[in-house]
Structures are given as C-alpha cells and as structure tokens.
Amino acid sequence: MVTRQVASVLIYRSDFFVGKRKYMETKQTRYSLLNDQAQSLLDGEHDLIANMSNLVSLIFNSDQNINGTTYYRLKNGELILGPFQGKPACVHIPLGRGVCGTAAALKKTVIVSNVHKFEGHIACDKDSNSEIVVPIFSKNEFWGVLDLDSTKFNYFDKNDQEYLEKIGNYIFGI
Prior knowledge:
The chain is of the alpha+beta class. The chain has helices at residues 4-7, 27-42, 48-60, 98-106, 158-167; strands spanning 11-12, 15-18, 21-24, 66-75, 78-86, 92-94, 110-112, 130-138, 141-150. 30% of the residues lie in helices and 31% in strands.
C-alpha cells in the first residue's frame, strides 16, 4: 500500500530531492517513483478531470527533457484536447493524422524518434523532436491518448511505453 507521504516527495525535472539529499536517477527509477506518486495522489479520487490534471503535471514535472504532456479524448470521431502541461496544444486532431491521430487510429503506442521525419506530423511546439503517444482505455473501450513530447531526439523507448501504458490509465481510478 502506497501512503500519502509518497506524494509529498518533490520531483524536479531530471533529479529529485528527498529531505535535503539530491539523487540523480535513471528513467526506470524516475518511473518507479512517478508510479508511487501517481498511485498515492489519485487513490480514492474519482473525478476524471482532477486525475488527468494531476497526472499530466506529475509526468511533465518529472523530467526536464519533456516539453509537453497532454491527454486527448475521443469525441465525435476526433481527438479533443484535455488537460495538459507545456505550450498551447492543438485542440482538434483527426484520427490518422499526426502522431496522436495515428496512435488513436491504431489503438496502440507509437514512438517517434524524430518527429520532423514523421509524415503528417502536427507541429504544436517547434522545440519538440521526439514523441510517444499511448492509447488510453476505459473498460476495454478506446477512450483517447496520452501524448508526451521531448526536446531530445530518440528520447522515448520501450521502458517509457511500459510505464506510461500503466500510469496513463490511472485516471479512471487505482
């Protein structure tokens, strides 16, 4: 059982602090801490908007190389902007267009090492160089996507995919 104390650990973009000690981390360590924090913060909360808002903030603030974290939900056959952190984001994304629309159409995670080479990429932030988009399911039905952008090329990998596919669905309850 994760306690509420875990949520009080502050994570700062790229490294984190416990008490007065600074610990450098690996991606796996960061995701493990992020998982514990998300579970603690969202445990017992059933408001979808509150959960999405807190989760995108946790993810965005956990890594200085992430310049955008966004939920998009499926509505009337297109993706519609939900809670996000970062620069202003696209409001409407057609299925099959851009990285988000492609992941939504396929209903599977899409990792792009260089967004500038992705045909049909929708550039909401010119500083983004790589992207991962994870499908979100509610009761086994496709609901939308969680989109992360990075300023670094080749930033996202299978480790990100594994954790984000798990953590991203916490919005529906722990």
